[in-house]
Amino acid sequence: MHxxxxxxxxxxxxxxxxxxxxxxxxxxxxxxxxxxxxxFKALIAAEYNGIEVNVADFDESAAALSPLGKCPxxxxxxxxxxxxxxxxxxxxxxxxxxxxxxxxxxxxxxxxDSWVDFGAHEVECEFCLAYKLAISCDL
Length: 139
Known about the structure:
The chain has helices at 25-34, 39-49, 60-65, 85-94, 106-136; strands at 2-6, 53-57, 73-75, 81-83. By secondary structure, the protein is of the alpha+beta class. 21% of the residues are buried.
């Protein structure tokens, strides 16, 4: 079983299999502050692929696994350690080829990568900037 280390005290309970994915702003806001919102990419990929991921608290021992000391960090069943949310999500997406979550052809894979990069560079960056500005202005 894989172990994903993140600050999970605010993670909501959800299931894509039952189409009851519910994100509430009051739940997401503490996740952003704690840095957990990036872990959702990996958890959603795991849910779609039917892969069991144990979400554990991010403590000092988990921080030591990451070269940057940040979450999320994935420790695979083999003991390999992956860091950075997009890399973890891509790894989980590629562990089962039958679901075709990461694309079948090179073009499909590039399209998936395009949307992942779009989310990381256009959505996450803008959201982080807006949040930091709001905090600095005491909004």
